[in-house]
Specification:
The complex is a heterotrimer. Chain A is mostly helical. Chain A contains eleven helices and two strands. A two-stranded antiparallel ribbon of chain A has the order 1-2. In chain A, helix 2 runs parallel beside helix 4. By secondary structure, chain B is an alpha/beta fold. Helices cover about 35% and strands about 15% of the residues of chain B. A six-stranded mixed β-sheet of chain B has the order 4-5-6-1-7-8, sandwiched between helices. A two-stranded antiparallel ribbon of chain B has the order 2-3. Chain C has 15 helices and two strands. Classes of the chains: A mainly alpha, B alpha/beta, C mainly alpha. Chains in contact: A-C, B-C. Chains A and C meet through helix 4, helix 9 and helix 11 of A and helix 6, helix 12 and helix 14 of C.
């Protein structure tokens, strides 16, 4: 009983780490510029497919592809931001939703064209396969890897934002854009950087998720819902909020599937609706 | 704590000016009175003597129906509606016809006529059919007042009615306000002291969330504390 | 309210498919059904300003209601329409109490969440709904004696007639004081209470009416196809109808209808062999519309025909 509970918590936490990586970028950019970027999961796909290509076509080792997944996704997001997104910063929520949904559709088609609609799979290195015994219980190695990477990145993000000057500028811009500009902070630059960072993290998340949830062109839409839930529940612009929401949702989903399989995804949606009704600005959101 | 210990009474038919430095809590007070903000403690009453009803718990729109209306410091209008449509809407809401989805708008001639009359009384007659966002700023400020008047208020709260309007145009605005019925109780927030002294029968001074002093204009002009509060100590000369 | 000559021309043209394209009458019925669905969304999105990513919930409720009635009791369409309207109206009224209290992202997420919840519930309650396979094994043979056959004449006549009747209702609403109040809410939700308007009550009413119309559209789909699929409740359908409405132009009464025509005809022509291609072009079109035609096709046309006076 206890071991299955521990198992659910462990798997849920690992899943939560994945959701966190996929969502944190969107939360920060939404909180900073109020720009609704529903194409965020397309960046995840860019990273995922980058990893797949590098491994299958160029024979790169898995770990080496991860930084590349980050970089390619970051690059794509910056290009999109400079060309299209920045013209719509003052537009309505609806217009931004629609533009980015259009981009999602295009990305789904493009990836289907180049990679077919088949599920992609990769061979992770041996030491990441299988499971380990800890305290008499069995835990999947890859999931432990996910948790380690997730926590490491969270620590890095928090340190970066709290301890560096650039991080301080980003925090200022998220808090109060106008005031930040008034203080001489180059908000556009900060935003471009944040966008790249967020997109890159999504790409990393996409690459890491191949082993756990697979990758096909519908990823961008299928996981958009989960990412939006994490962002809305966690609160815009809050890393801590995204972390908490991602963990809560990851564990709820696992618990739901394990203990109430007949409920399906019902539990996650119920949790989201309930949480939003109680705190519409999200768990840690401002306003 | 943005506003505290406010004890205020506005007898009917008088014109009150509410003055004070920026951030003193004047707009907050208006928001509390109209129901856009809920107070942590205290009560708001509307009406005279025994007829006074407590409105503290009432929703903002219910307070309007009871006769308390306001205008906003920053234009809060309906950009794509024409001036006539906007005022007509206010009249229809007042008369309780706005829920009617079956009869066409042209059938509500009385409401439309009344809207025309209100617009004319404020000099906006020729702007009736233009969309709000096309109107020049000064006329938009007048439309702000027109919307509030359409609700047939007994008490009217004007939040810096001439905000952003150049001096020469604001005369039109204040003549219009001056021309309003003497049965209407008006409280207006204003920074221009000439206007304040011309129109107000009493002045309330707010500083730091509290009421500093209240009284007729000449008393306020002589009050030392009020002079100190304003940077330009000579600005209050009558 | 006077009818513009173009409107009369338009509605007369809707009769053309009977004569000009008799092979495409089933597509035409689907277009009419989608048009009604989009029109119902316009009421809350284009006129009241509620961005909903879960409107398919009511479409699906209507579809399943009609299907369950036909399957277990009797397969007469008009009573199915009535029952679907009532049930989806009730669901709409119930959810409206939640929906009207929120704005911005929370509102979008809530409407999406409620839609997803309903979809999951229907998926799980397979004893009632057939689960992922949908509701099958029933037939709706005819309406008022006109058989639903493979030529689709009765289907199109039925869909077109109901669309037109619902359109007339919407037209009345738009031009009424209530319609003006909805536009007021869309234009400036803050000012409405300040002029004594009970905004939430207005919005609940609009949301309920929109739910009723969407439910009717869903029921029509069931009647003309004699099947109900789980997809009628899906997020994809909510997103699709949003795209359709924006394409045609929200807040212009005819936007949903125009959008439905263009979207469905294009999908019929282009998606044939490869559904991927379809997503590519519709995505590109969406980006183009947002960047260059922010008020949809009707908005663009109106700028063209009526220069600013």
């Amino acid at each position: 009983m206890l071991s299955s509970l521990a198992g659910v918590l462990f798997d849920g936490f690992a899943y939560g780490m994945l959701l966190f990586l996929l969502s944190v970028g969107l939360s920060v950019t939404l909180g900073m510029m109020n720009f609704v970027n529903l194409a965020h999961c397309s960046f995840a796909m860019v990273g995922g497919y980058a990893t797949v290509s590098l491994m299958t076509r160029l024979g790169w080792p898995f770990l080496a592809t991860l930084p590349m997944a980050f970089v390619t996704a970051a690059a794509v997001s910056v290009v999109l931001e400079r060309t299209l997104y920045r013209r719509l910063y003052r537009s309505s929520d609806l217009d931004q939703c629609l533009l980015t949904i259009g981009i999602v559709f295009v990305s789904v088609a493009v990836f289907a064209w180049f990679f077919t609609t088949e599920q992609q799979s990769i061979q992770v290195p041996d030491w990441l396969q299988g499971s380990q015994q800890v305290a008499g219980m069995t835990f999947a190695s890859y999931r432990m890897f996910l948790i380690v990477v997730g926590l490491a990145i969270t620590a890095f993000l928090v340190l970066f934002l709290e301890r560096t000057r650039f991080g301080a500028r980003i925090r200022a811009a998220v808090d109060n854009q106008r005031m930040a500009r008034g203080l001489g902070i180059d908000v556009d630059r900060a935003f471009m950087f944040t966008f790249a960072l967020g997109g890159g993290l999504a790409g990393l998340g996409g690459a890491l998720s191949i082993q756990v949830i697979g990758l096909d062109p519908t990823f961008a839409l299928a996981y958009l819902v989960y990412v939006l839930i994490v962002v809305a529940v966690g609160g815009l612009g809050s890393i801590g909020g995204s972390f908490a929401a991602a963990v809560v949702l990851g564990i709820s989903d696992m618990a739901g599937k394990y203990y109430f399989p007949w409920l399906g995804a019902f539990l996650i949606y119920l949790v989201m609706v309930g949480l939003l009704m109680w705190r519409p600005q999200g768990l840690f959101g401002k306003r | 704590m943005v506003a505290q210990d406010i004890a205020l009474e506005l007898p009917q038919g008088k014109r009150y000016a509410l003055i004070g430095p920026n951030g003193a809590g004047k707009t907050t007070l208006m928001n509390l009175l109209t129901g856009m903000l809920a107070p942590d403690s205290g009560q708001v009453f509307l009406g005279e003597g025994e007829d006074a009803t407590e409105i503290t718990r009432l929703r903002a729109d219910t307070r309007v129906k009871k006769g308390l209306a306001r205008t906003f410091q920053i234009n809060t209008l309906f950009p794509q509606l024409s001036a006539l449509e906007a005022v007509t809407l206010a009249v229809l809401e007042r008369d309780g016809h706005a829920h009617n989805w079956w009869r066409g708008l042209p059938r509500f001639g009385a409401a439309i006529d009344e809207a025309h009359a209100i617009l004319n009384s404020l000099g906006l007659g020729n702007a009736s059919f233009r969309t709000t966002k096309e109107l020049p700023y000064g006329q938009q400020r007048l439309l702000e007042i027109a919307l509030a008047l359409a609700t047939r208020p007994k008490v009217l709260l004007l939040d810096e009615p001439a905000a952003g309007v150049p001096k020469d145009e604001s005369a039109v605005l204040f003549d219009a306000i001056d021309g309003l019925s003497r049965e209407l109780t008006i409280l207006f927030i204003e920074h221009d002291m000439d206007v304040v002294f011309r129109f107000a029968s009493r002045i309330i001074v707010m500083v730091g969330g509290r009421i500093l002093v209240e009284g007729p204009p000449d008393e306020i002009a002589r009050d030392e504390r009020v002079r100190e509060v304003y940077l330009g100590k000579t600005r209050l000369a009558a | 309210m006077r009818w513009h000559p173009l409107e009369i021309v338009f509605w007369l043209c809707t009769l053309l498919p009977f004569v000009v394209t008799p092979n495409y009458l089933s597509l035409a019925s689907q277009i009419a059904i989608t048009a009604l669905f989009a029109l119902s969304l316009d009421l809350i999105l284009g006129y009241a300003g509620i961005v909903s990513l879960g409107h398919a919930a009511f479409f699906g409720v209507g579809a399943y209601t009609a299907g369950l009635l036909a399957k277990h009791y009797f397969a007469e369409p008009l009573s199915g329409l009535l029952l679907a309207a009532v049930i989806s109206g009730l669901v709409g009224y119930a959810t409206s109490h939640i929906v009207v209290r929120f704005r911005h992202l929370a509102l979008i997420m809530l409407t999406m969440g409620l839609g997803l919840l309903l979809h999951e519930a229907a998926n799980s309650a397979s004893a009632l709904t057939g689960g992922a396979d949908g509701l099958q094994g029933f037939r709706v043979p005819a309406v008022l004696g006109f058989k639903f056959d493979m030529f689709g004449r009765a289907a199109y006549a039925y869909s077109l007639a109901i669309l037109f009747l619902c359109f007339l209702v919407c037209r009345r609403i738009i031009h009424s004081p209530f319609g003006l109040a909805l536009r007021g809410i869309r234009e400036n939700a803050t000012r409405m209470p300040a002029i004594g308007a009970p905004s939430r009550a207005h919005l609940r009413k609009a949301y309920t009416v929109a739910a009723v119309l969407a439910g009717i559209a869903g029921a029509m789909l069931t009647h003309t196809t004699s099947t109900v699929s789980l997809e009628t409740l899906s997020f994809g359908r909510s997103a699709d109808v949003l795209v359709i409405l924006i394409l045609g132009g929200a807040g212009r009464l005819y936007g949903g209808i125009i959008g439905a025509i263009i979207y469905m005809v294009a999908r019929d022509q282009f998606s044939g062999a490869n559904p991927q291609y379809w997503y590519f072009w519709i995505g590109l079109l969406l980006v183009a519309v947002v960047m260059f035609l922010p008020n949809g096709i009707l908005g663009g046309l109106s700028k063209f025909f009526q220069p600013r006076s």
